[in-house]
Amino acid sequence: MSSMKDLLEKMTFAGEPKQKPGDQVRGKEKFDMISPILGKKPKQHPAHGRLVGGGAAEEYEESVEHIADQLRKELEEYGALGSGISSGSSMDRTEYAQMRRDQKVQQQQADSQEDDIEDQIKGLTQQSLAVSRQPVPLPNPNDPASIQQFAAASRQKKAEKTQIANQKRALNQAKKQFT
């Protein structure tokens, strides 16, 4: 307990050298921000001259300018906050914007190709339906030539449907690349 008392006795006022302890601004003091004489804001803060560190305002303005300069330099070097440009990137903003435009064009081309493939698949489906609906003349059971014509027409119809199915399968495989 005595060491605490000794410590308190050794403490001195922490204000400016010429400032008295009573002149220091207290945290609970209220200030009139409007001049009672003129009825408008005063040019200086009401506590001007009573603040610890007389040059505090100038130091504050200098520190604000210093921080603003620092932020400008970082913005020039690294790009805008949230722009997606990492701090280790060697791209400037125009290169990054061009890269984004190129990516957008590539995506549009891919979407267009996918739409083209879907249209081709729809066309092949329609073609397959048309082939299926083609009538094949019924053979005359007593005529061997008629039976051969029927068999040839049936094989041709089946070959066309198989070819269309293979084309649709290949297009569906190509379409899977986009999804």
What proportion of the residues is helical, as a percent range?
55-70%
Order of helices and strands: HHHH
Shape: rod-shaped
Q: Radius of gyration in whole Å, from Cα?
A: 44 Å
- Number of DSSP strands? 0
Please tally the helical runs, counting DSSP H or I stretches of 4 or more residues: 4
Structural class: mainly alpha
Describe the structure.
There is one protein chain. This protein has helices at 2-10, 56-78, 93-133, 144-176. The radius of gyration is 44 Å and the shape is rod-shaped. It has a domain at 105-176. The protein is an all-alpha fold.
Name the descriptors.
179 residues
Question: What is this structure's SSE topology?
Answer:
Blueprint: H1 2-10, H2 56-78, H3 93-133, H4 144-176
Helix pairs in contact: 3-4
Q: Can you give me a brief rundown of this structure?
A:
With 179 residues, this protein is mainly α.
